[in-house]
UniProtKB/TrEMBL annotation:
<dbReference type="GO" id="GO:0048040">
    <property type="term" value="F:UDP-glucuronate decarboxylase activity"/>
</dbReference>
<feature type="domain" description="NAD(P)-binding">
    <location>
        <begin position="32"/>
        <end position="319"/>
    </location>
</feature>
<keyword id="KW-0456">Lyase</keyword>
<keyword id="KW-0520">NAD</keyword>
<dbReference type="GO" id="GO:0042732">
    <property type="term" value="P:D-xylose metabolic process"/>
</dbReference>
<keyword id="KW-0472">Membrane</keyword>
<protein>
    <recommendedName>
        <fullName>UDP-glucuronate decarboxylase</fullName>
        <ecNumber>4.1.1.35</ecNumber>
    </recommendedName>
</protein>
<comment type="pathway">
    <text>Nucleotide-sugar biosynthesis; UDP-alpha-D-xylose biosynthesis; UDP-alpha-D-xylose from UDP-alpha-D-glucuronate: step 1/1.</text>
</comment>
<dbReference type="GO" id="GO:0070403">
    <property type="term" value="F:NAD+ binding"/>
</dbReference>
<keyword id="KW-0812">Transmembrane</keyword>
<comment type="similarity">
    <text>Belongs to the NAD(P)-dependent epimerase/dehydratase family. UDP-glucuronic acid decarboxylase subfamily.</text>
</comment>
<keyword id="KW-0333">Golgi apparatus</keyword>
<keyword id="KW-0210">Decarboxylase</keyword>
<dbReference type="GO" id="GO:0032580">
    <property type="term" value="C:Golgi cisterna membrane"/>
</dbReference>
<keyword id="KW-1133">Transmembrane helix</keyword>
<comment type="function">
    <text>Catalyzes the NAD-dependent decarboxylation of UDP-glucuronic acid to UDP-xylose. Necessary for the biosynthesis of the core tetrasaccharide in glycosaminoglycan biosynthesis.</text>
</comment>
<dbReference type="GO" id="GO:0033320">
    <property type="term" value="P:UDP-D-xylose biosynthetic process"/>
</dbReference>
Length: 338
């Protein structure tokens, strides 16, 4: 059984034919939904490199085969084109549930958060797998507490343009804790704050990818509103480390996973300018509805219970995504369906 030992890879599942990957633990079979996307593909790389088997489920709504092509041919890797809204039968030890259109441009069109989470929790229940939900800082809405702790219940508009996403994730959290309480499914909940890095979708409208792509294309960076709203930006490898620490730990959560370094959008534009092109300019545009005024995680809980904290500052992390963006822009990859 893969639950044994001090490795922390506790799981109720037990499948024949497991090959040890390290002293003290068996190789795990892990599903990553949304594994062809930005965060998912980095997570898959980490799980494969430590010796586990990974099955990616993705419908390529915003994800790309290009993000995983380096793993094609690896016998420990499988890719299934499937919409998580529909149930699927698999024998697995752990499920990282990331599938979800994660940018305002895309998420309005999709019921993935609720229906997809329900079907994947059903799978976890059936096979006794541990289930990790990637929730979001958006559950705090336009927060009246700053920085945000996990105990804060949030300030969310239930009928706004973003509601499908933030209320969808709030419902997903409810489903996860109810499956934990009512059906004894082992769940883990991460509340992810704004994350950036290589393989981000070029055209999904998030601020870091927009500014970086605009600066590379010599277009003005589009600052929405007065640019004084704040976000806290986390580099993707820090997030992936946090997700794995959470899955392997003993706590349900929720846990904030984010970098507490807080920037206004004008400050972010300045850092992008310093990093990419000192002649880059900005252009103001009207802001979107219900845009949170500020956001910054309190990560004391994750520090204490998961022994996790981010290591890479914005100034260190931004240059690490520039080469990837430059080459994709040169190749004319607009980020969808490849
Ligand atoms: P992404 O768009 O790059 O990845 C999402 C993946 O899910 C894509 O590969 C997409 O094709 C897939 N997908 C969408 N709907 C699906 C469906 N119905 N069935 C199967 N696959 C589906 O986004 P990301 O930034 O990698 O986000 C991953 C997760 O992390 C999401 O759940 C998101 O809500 C959460 N999150 C991300 C951030 C961030 O800043 N990146 C912040 C908070 C939360
Ligand atoms: N934003 C911006 N210019 C852009 C895209 C976004 O100024 O080209 C702003 C947006 O109004 C918001 C912040 O950047 O205040 C973060 O937006 P994003 O969509 O990246 O993430 P979220 O709002 O989900 O935190």
């Amino acid at each position: 059984d893969s639950s044994s030992g001090s490795s922390g890879f506790a799981s109720k599942g037990s499948f024949p034919g497991r090959i040890p990957v390290a002293i003290g633990r068996k190789r795990l079979r892990i599903v990553v939904t949304g594994g062809a996307g930005f965060v998912g593909s980095h997570l898959v790389d980490k799980l494969i490199s430590r010796g586990d088997e990974v099955i990616v489920i993705d419908n390529f709504f915003t994800g790309r085969k290009d993000n995983l092509v380096h793993l094609f041919g690896n016998p420990r890797f499988e890719l299934i084109r499937h919409d998580v809204v529909d149930p699927i039968l698999l024998e697995v030890d752990q499920i990282y549930h990331l599938a979800c259109p994660a940018s305002p441009v895309h998420y309005k069109y999709n019921p993935t958060n609720v229906m997809g989470t329900l079907s994947m929790l059903g799978l976890a229940k059936r096979v006794g797998a541990r289930f990790l939900l990637t929730s979001t800082s958006e559950v705090y809405g336009d927060p009246l507490e700053h920085p945000q702790k996990e105990t804060y219940w949030g300030n969310v508009n239930p009928i706004g343009e973003r509601s499908c996403y933030d209320e969808g994730k709030r419902t997903a959290e409810t489903l996860a804790v109810d499956y934990n309480r009512g059906a004894d499914v082992e769940v883990r909940i991460a509340r992810i704050f704004n994350t950036y890095g290589p393989r981000m979708c070029l055209d999904d409208g998030r601020v870091v990818s927009n500014f970086v792509a605009q600066a590379i294309r010599k277009q003005p960076m589009t600052v929405y509103g007065d640019g004084k709203q704040t976000r806290s930006f986390q580099y993707v490898s820090d997030l992936v480390d946090g997700l794995v620490a959470l899955m392997e730990g003993e706590h349900v959560g929720p846990f904030n996973l984010g970098n507490p370094g807080e920037f206004t959008m004008l400050e972010l534009a300045e850092v992008v300018k310093e990093t990419i092109d000192s002649s880059a300019t900005i252009e103001f545009r009207p802001n979107t509805a219900d845009d949170p005024h500020k956001r910054k995680p309190d990560i004391s809980k994750a520090k204490e219970l998961l022994n996790w904290e981010p290591k890479i500052s914005l100034r260190e992390g931004l240059p690490l995504m520039v080469n990837d963006f430059r080459s994709r822009i040169l190749e004319g990859d607009e980020g969808r369906g490849l």
